[in-house]
Design a protein that fits this description.
The protein is mainly alpha-helical. It folds into seven domains: about 60 residues, no CATH class; about 140 residues, P-loop containing nucleotide triphosphate hydrolases (Rossmann fold); about 80 residues; about 70 residues, Arc Repressor Mutant, subunit A; about 160 residues, no CATH class; about 100 residues; about 80 residues. About 60% of the residues lie in helices and about 5% in strands. The protein has 35 helices and nine strands. The strands form three sheets. Strands 2-5-6-1-7 form a five-stranded parallel sheet, with helices on both faces. Strand 3 and strand 4 form a beta hairpin. The longest helix has 28 residues. The two termini are about 35 Å apart. The mean pLDDT is about 90. It comes from Amycolatopsis eburnea. This is AAA+ ATPase domain-containing protein.
Length: about 750
């Protein structure tokens, strides 16, 4: 479990350091004054602050409290609002929590999520932002929630862009801790099952964590000694809720019958709501409430579950047969969330979109940002009991998404030139026809793609799984999203292995497909700093690629790609070895060894590219080789290699080459040449929207300013980077503080 004092002390040290280099506002000043008052003239580093915090709990509490104000004005994406004029469970709202943990337990339909929203609203005076709401049920795969995905979701809601989310576990934990310790927020975790799902949040007790669950386990009870246990609404609240949904019927005109009705519903909000909607259909009858009770007696409805079922039977009876079938199919839509287009594809036929609209118009769905919808919980539960050909619907959706993902991949190919390396089976006749940018579409649908990959694998749709995983590589190459791709690639390896086994039984396997899947999984792994499993994948991929019985040009191209990834894996390891404040001599030697191995593998890739005349890959691998040479302190050699690469690169790759060249020119003391390369790279990256390189580009720009002697501008550039990294809780913060600390002070600026 996270040591919150370590997190708080580390963040306080960053705040103090940031203040020294110019980032000062009221919140920062208060933190700095507290730290200086405690430490006196001693440098405010993490160790000293931590020791003081452990020795003085009052100081630790004050420091944690002040830190939460540092990013109080940071951008936040707001969660859903509660119901206006909410009047139910009022006894729980009389003394609402404003920090810490509160568990709300109750059966589905008991109003636990809405109560959590109302409690969050009551905390607005202390936490003046709308809550972050995350439904863990939608993130649970095989009964397990990947808490890294939950942390990333929270960070996104706190305003951290996808491109700034750290991939590796240690870095993500640091970013998550930084974010939650330097701002106040309310988090609603819906449908919690295990106490372990709360562990990442518990150290940050100044924030408000509201948890809903259907089962109050002993472990959850141990975390909250005063949980809210919902059994149903108070009678007055139930009657008011009934009246809200029964309009224009007035249940108060039949008070005795209305009390009997809400009692039959067990005072459960979901059942009372459905009973109210059913009453609304009886408008104009002489005694609608009595009439509904008589109907319930006749049909055998005796409890809340029966009232809900009866209401949905009535609702579905008013739908067309196509809409009933559509709702039944949407109840098992992969991942639960669908857009108009994906729902229409899933439902199939010429009327798919019209059926979707009828289901939405019947208020069986709830919307989310970006045009996504899902069936409401109760509608989904009822619809799932209805007969439907769900496998046919899955096949239609799989083909629709597969075709669009592959078309997005193919759209990057240039006429007359070899396309991107693909070992998956490419369907014929696919072109990108949507008006939306292909990368934006892939980005929006990445979650659905992951769901289809998982569901497709268990349905033995191995070819389609490999097509989806292979084609979506084009997105992660452009925008990152490696954490999500790691899960996709893991399933893709298993699907490729299954295809290989199936084809081997017929006399010819698919080792090249397995090698490519292993390579891409290794890439996701080494970017996440999972080096040993990445190295194992690459070793196996190298063997498979070398023995693959495919045309020689294809086989050697695959070998070149695996060699590239082996080189990149070594390079990432080399960077990781010295990612410390003061690397030892042994660490520096290990870095040199890893860079030499990386250079060897990249040289192998370059040699193969030259032999087969693959200019596109040659340009990329020469650029990577040049980058390693810069890191190894051989800038002149790097520029010679970069000049060779320049003949073969375009677009994003040309921009990346210019960035390498700029670093090399800086290393040999030619800032003017470095600026030429940097400005060219900036223009190209803007044109190609390659967002993941923004930080590196800006870092190079700041170093060029310093090398040109423009210290005031360099200082400001590093401050901007520091401020952004600090706001996002990014581990780069420490690096930027070090850069600013080593920069000569501009005239007149205090240090």
């Amino acid at each position: 479990m996270v040591d919150v004092l370590e997190v708080v002390s580390s963040e306080a040290a960053k705040v103090a350091a940031a203040a020294l280099v110019g980032r000062v506002d009221k919140a920062v000043s208060r933190v700095v004054d507290l730290v200086r008052g405690k430490l006196g003239g001693a440098p405010p580093d993490t160790g000293r602050i931590l020791a003081a915090a452990r020795a003085d709990p009052e100081f630790a509490d004050d420091l944690a409290r002040l830190l939460t104000t540092v990013h109080a004005g940071a951008e936040q994406v707001h969660g859903p609002a509660g119901i206006t004029g909410y009047r139910n469970h009022v006894r729980y709202l009389a003394d609402p929590p404003t920090s810490g943990l509160r568990v709300i337990a109750g059966p589905p339909g008991s109003g636990r999520t809405e109560l959590a929203r109302q409690l969050a609203d009551r905390a607005r005076d202390r936490i003046p932002v709308r809550p972050i709401e995350i439904d863990l049920a939608g993130l649970r795969v095989g009964g397990v929630v990947d808490m890294a995905v939950v942390k990333q979701r929270v960070l996104r809601e706190l305003g951290v862009p996808d491109a700034e989310l750290v991939v590796d576990n240690a870095g993500l934990d640091q970013q998550f801790g930084s974010a939650l310790s330097t701002r106040l927020c309310t988090i609603i975790l819906d449908n919690v099952v295990l106490a372990a799902e709360l562990q990442p949040f518990l150290p940050f007790r100044l924030n408000l964590l509201l948890v809903t669950t259907s089962v109050m386990t002993r472990e959850l009870a141990a975390l909250d000694r005063a949980p809210i246990l919902l059994r149903g609404l108070d009678e007055d609240g139930a009657l008011e809720l009934l009246a809200d949904f029964a309009s224009p019927v007035r249940p108060s005109d039949e008070p005795v019958e209305a009390r009997r009705l809400v009692e039959l519903c067990g005072h459960m909000p979901a059942a009372v709501q459905q009973a109210g909607l059913t009453l609304a259909r009886r408008a104009g009858e002489p005694q609608p409430v009595a009439g509904l009770l008589a109907h319930y007696r006749t049909t055998g409805v005796v409890d809340a579950e029966g009232a809900v079922r009866d209401a949905f039977q009535r609702t579905f009876a008013e739908l067309s047969a196509e809409a009933v079938l559509g709702a039944a199919q949407l109840a098992t839509f992969p991942g639960g969330w669908f857009t108009r287009a994906t729902a229409a594809a899933y439902l199939g036929g010429r009327n798919g979109e019209r059926v979707f609209e009828e289901v939405v118009d019947a208020q069986l769905t709830e919307p989310a940002r970006g045009g996504w919808h899902r069936l409401t919980t109760l509608a989904g539960q009822y619809a799932a009991t209805l007969p439907a050909d769900r496998e046919a619907a899955f096949d239609r959706l799989l083909r629709y998404v597969r075709d669009h993902v592959v078309a997005a991949d193919l759209a990057g190919d240039q006429p007359g030139k070899p396309g991107r390396l693909r070992e998956y089976v490419v369907p014929a006749g696919l072109t990108w026809t949507l008006p939306e940018d292909r990368f934006d579409w892939l980005d929006r649908h990445l979650g659905l793609i992951g769901e289809l990959v998982r569901a497709g694998y268990w349905r033995r749709r191995h070819k389609e799984v490999c097509q989806l995983a292979g084609a979506v590589e084009v997105l992660v190459n452009q925008r990152g999203r490696w954490r999500e791709f790691a899960d996709i690639s893991d399933t893709a390896v298993r699907a490729a292995e299954a295809l290989d086994a199936e084809r081997a039984a017929g006399g010819k396997g698919a080792p090249a497909l397995v090698a490519r899947a292993l390579s891409m999984r290794a890439r996701a792994r080494f970017l996440a700093r999972w080096f040993p499993p990445a190295a194992e994948d690459l070793e196996r991929a190298w063997r498979l690629a070398g023995s693959a019985e495919i045309p020689d040009w294809r086989r050697r191209r695959l070998l070149s790609s695996v060699a590239e990834f082996r080189g990149r894996c070594c390079e990432e390891q080399a960077d990781d070895v010295v990612a410390v404040t003061a690397p030892s001599e042994a660490q520096r030697q290990e870095r040199a060894r890893l860079l030499a191995e990386a250079e060897q593998w990249l040289s192998t890739a370059v040699a193969v590219d030259g032999e087969i005349g693959h200019g596109y890959a040659l340009g990329i691998h020469l650029r990577m080789h040049a980058s390693i040479l810069v890191k190894a302190g051989r800038a002149e050699e790097a520029l010679a290699v970069a000049n060779q690469a320049a003949e073969h690169v375009t677009g994003r790759n040309a921009a990346r080459l210019d960035m390498v060249a700029a670093k090399a020119y800086l290393a040999i003391g030619e800032p003017s040449r470095a600026r030429e390369c940097w400005e060219r790279a900036a223009r190209l990256l803007q044109q190609t929207r390659a967002e993941q390189y923004e930080w590196e580009l800006r870092e190079i720009g700041a170093r060029i300013l310093a090398a040109e002697g423009r210290l005031e501008e360099a200082w400001f550039a590093w401050q901007e980077l520091l401020g952004k990294a600090f706001t996002y809780g990014h581990p780069r913060t420490d690096e930027y503080l070090s850069e600013l600390g080593s920069l000569p002070s501009p005239s007149g600026r205090p240090r």
